[in-house]
Amino acid sequence: MRIEIHSFNGVHFDLDVEESETLKNVKQKIRSKVNYPVTQQSLIFNYNKIDDDDKTLSAYGIEDGASLQLRIAGEWKITVELMNDLVISMEINPNYTRSIRELKYIIQHKTQTRAEIQRLFLNGNELLDEAYICEAGIQDGTVLVCRPKMEILVNISGRKITVGTKEDDLIKEVKRQIRVMEELLSHKLRLMLNGTELDNMKRLCDYGIVDGSEIEMYKEPYTNADFVNIAVLDQGGTGYHFKVKMATSIRSLKLVLQDKYKIPYAQFRLLFGGNRINDFDTIQNLGIHDGDELEMFLCQCGC
Hints:
Layout: E1 2-6, E2 12-16, H1 23-34, E3 41-45, E4 48-50, E5 67-72, E6 76-81, E7 87-92, H2 100-111, E8 118-122, E9 125-127, E10 143-148, E11 150-156, E12 159-165, H3 171-181, E13 187-193, E14 196-197, E15 214-221, E16 227-233, E17 239-245, H4 250-261, E18 268-272, E19 275-276, E20 293-298
């Protein structure tokens, strides 16, 4: 059977195991994957620590598809406040996550906020990528603030939103962020600067767009695409409704859910017909039709 391991640093991986295997055997397999010493590993299942290495997986009720959370001795829990009011908790181990750059990649994994646009601040001071965590003043309980390298204003019918980006981002990347923030999964976007439409394959710097610049956005429904209305049901039965193109990826849908409901991207899975679906599949490839429902499953590990 196959189980999922969710590591403290945001790394997920699968393990092929037998239900008759002992916990110690599983930890040895984990070491072969990620090289964490067996004696430093702690595993959590259904919010409970399982610590008898001589017991089998079946004795703990662990079945095919189960998710286990991996903890390593010496972990710190820190909080990161991101753009758009998204707040995440992270577990890091200074023995394994050494630099600020590595920390940014963990944030990217959890939220899909690209590491290259992130600026991290502690008590108002920016932390450099090359700095070591142990030298930057970070410790257990620290609160970090994450801001983009630059912010631009987008005027949408008189209403302004702020988009985090960097000067060499492509226009199509800016559109992707706006599409997520505004739930525009069924509209074509046009970005304008001083009356000139911005080309998808050009960069912000090509148009002289810098931190604080303001551009205009216009939207229009796609006329040559197929659409479906779908619902995403959380574990409490609450439904979130979307109109999407058939070509929309599950990743795009998850990013909209993250932005709107402040649930970190890596902290939930979407299921269709009881089966977990890949983030890079599309609505069309999965055979999802108008009126279908997807299920949202929150990871017990809180990864």
